[in-house]
Write a structure and sequence with these properties.
Blueprint lengths: L4 E4 L3 H12 L4 E4 L3 H11 L5 E3 L3 H6 L6 E4 L5 H13 L5 E4 L5 H12 L4 E8 L1 H7 L2 E4 L3 H14 L2 E2 L2 E2 L9 H31 L3 H11 L7 H11 L22 H12 L4 H13 L2 H9 L15 H37 L5 H7 L10 H11 L10 H23 L5 H14 L5 H12 L12 E3 L7 E3 L3
Parallel strand pairs: 1-2, 1-4, 2-3, 4-5, 5-6
Antiparallel strand pairs: 6-7, 8-9, 10-11
The structure holds nicotinamide 8-bromo-adenine dinucleotide phosphate (NBP).
Pathway: Carbohydrate degradation; pentose phosphate pathway; D-ribulose 5-phosphate from D-glucose 6-phosphate (oxidative stage): step 3/3
Protein name: 6-phosphogluconate dehydrogenase, decarboxylating
Catalytic activity: 6-phospho-D-gluconate + NADP(+) = D-ribulose 5-phosphate + CO2 + NADPH
Length: 483
């Protein structure tokens, strides 16, 4: 019979998704530019299900049932354009091309328009979970048309991760919406990782704990609010000992964090939308700082002074335990703020592009399969179920109470770290955001007044409606300019 779906691009992600589909009972036509990869997949895993090896794209297209569905898993950028274009030349109206790579959402929107003009569906699907998730069940964020999802959705939902029997896959919205949500997911992942790293650093420098000792502390966090995949792998990494030197593994890994760019894309888009995502931005910049070797060398050589105050932690078991608990609470509060900001960005992008993104559904499909998977996401889904139009996640009563409970700890940790020269950019930026967003008034009044003085940018008043300008270089009289 004809195949249910085709997969083009059989590197780690494509071959594992093809295997996942086959293991779930689908007949999968597979093709890769270099035929060796197709042969290797069939030789190693051909017995896991029904595969149809295809030497060429026309062969692949000919082997598929209508409407034909082809999942493209090649390098993002030019390779994706080349493969999508070749497929489009051989497919027929109504057929569906799914780009499961890490495309930029604007590229996806462009490809979708281009294929739609030829009667074809392009579905940009964000797929998270890496190599293992692709095989055992990733979190899948498909965009594209309702019509395409009607055919494709059941297959993607079937191969996705499931939590409490619910698939970690849902139709996100038109054109680039799926890749956008995947991008913000990755941005939140950056923030989450940075916050955990800051907690580790504060415990290390504040209490003088070793990496394995902190590993034990972090393992203990897995049973509470912080229960998540990232916390779990942090405990594993911290417990690991380097075989060669016998030292804790983190102590032999170079302290320069790399990035592939989705965090940067998230921040770039947030800047365009004017949404403060300070947690994600600080996390992205912190990776950049860690990799700024010449600047770090120059600072070390200049002997830039720390002039620290000393840690104010009583050296008793109770004092140390209280400090650990402060760090745990600071981490949770900062994390909630970072997620709140990420969901604000989704709302703003959704409004800007007319995507109608359901934020509660995004949190639901991130509960399994992906890097930020965590039980905590249930609470976010519930918050958006209580109020689908929720303006601010940390204003939801449950989160407001949770962050409020931690706020004193949070301030102590940021203050102590700052007094002792330990950089906590994401902790501090999240706290500053919290204080800014809850403030009864902000010094933005002064900024707007400055703007009126040097640029006649006008201002509004607190006591009556209207838009005003003061004649700063003249008699300082005020005129109403909107009347
Ligand atoms: P890569 O991103 O390393 O891409 C390798 C694949 O692209 C190979 O199949 C290669 O064929 C094919 N390809 C290239 Br490169 N140029 C091509 C062209 N001009 N025409 C046809 N095929 C071409 O593979 P990956 O790591 O499996 O990732 C696939 C996609 O999934 C990427 O967009 C990635 O960003 C995304 N993603 C990856 C992960 C992850 O954990 N790795 C997670 C989530 C998403 P060849 O064999 O002939 O060279």
């Amino acid at each position: 019979g004809l195949a249910d779906i085709g997969v083009v691009g059989l590197a780690v992600m494509g071959s594992n998704l093809a295997r996942n589909l086959a293991r779930n009972g689908y007949t999968v036509a597979v093709h890769n530019r270099t035929p060796g990869r197709t042969r290797e997949l069939l030789a190693a895993h051909g017995d896991e299900g029904a595969f149809v090896a295809c030497a060429t794209v026309p062969d692949l297209v000919a082997s598929l049932a209508r409407p034909r569905t082809v999942l493209v898993m090649v390098k993002a950028g030019d390779a994706t354009d080349a493969v999508v274009e070749e497929l489009a030349r051989h497919l027929e109206p109504g057929d569906i091309v799914v780009d499961g790579g890490n495309a930029h959402f604007l590229d996806t929107a462009r490809r979708e328009r281009d294929l739609a003009a030829r009667g074809l569906h392009l579905v940009g699907a964000g797929i998270s979970g890496g190599e293992e998730g692709a095989l055992t069940g990733p979190s899948i964020m498909p965009g594209g048309s309702e019509e395409a999802y009607a055919t494709l959705g059941p297959m993607l939902e079937r191969i996705s991760a499931h939590v409490d029997g619910v698939p970690c896959c849902t139709h996100i919205g038109p054109d680039g919406a799926g890749h956008y949500v995947k991008m913000v997911h990755n941005g939140i992942e950056y923030a989450d990782m940075q916050l955990i790293a800051e907690a580790y650093d504060v415990l290390r420098q504040g209490l003088g704990l070793s990496a394995p000792e902190i590993g034990e502390v972090v393992a203990g966090w897995s049973t509470g609010d912080l229960d998540s995949y990232l916390v779990e792998i942090t405990a594993q990494v911290l417990a690991h000992v380097d075989a060669e030197t016998g030292r804790p593994f983190v102590d032999v890994v170079a302290d320069a964090a790399e990035q592939k760019g989705t965090g940067r894309w998230t921040v770039q888009s947030a800047l365009d939308l004017g949404v403060p995502v300070t947690g994600i931005a600080e996390a992205t910049f912190a990776r950049a700082l860690s990799g700024s070797a010449p600047q770090r060398a120059a600072a070390r050589e200049a002997g830039l002074a720390a002039r620290t105050a000393g840690w104010d932690v009583p050296d008793t078991p109770e004092g140390r335990a209280a400090f650990v608990e402060d760090v745990r609470r600071a981490l949770y509060a900062s994390k909630v703020v970072a997620y709140s900001q990420g969901f604000d960005q989704l709302a703003a992008a959704s409004a800007e592009h007319g995507w109608d993104i359901d934020r509660g559904a995004c949190a639901r499909i991130w509960r399994g399969g992906c890097i930020i998977r965590a039980r905590f996401l249930d609470r976010i889904t519930q918050a958006y179920e209580r109020d689908p139009e929720l303006e601010l996640l940390i204003a939801d009563p449950v989160f407001a109470a949770a962050v409020g409970d931690g706020v004193a700890s949070w301030r102590r940790v940021v203050a102590q770290a700052t007094l002792n020269g330990v950089p906590v950019p994401a902790f501090a930026a999240s706290l500053a955001y919290y204080d800014g967003v809850r403030a009864a008034s902000l010094p933005a009044s002064l900024i707007q007044a400055q703007r009126d003085l040097f640029g006649a940018h006008t201002y509004r008043r607190t006591d009556r409606p209207g838009v005003f300008h003061t004649e700063w270089s003249g008699d300082r009289s005020e005129t109403r300019v909107d009347a």
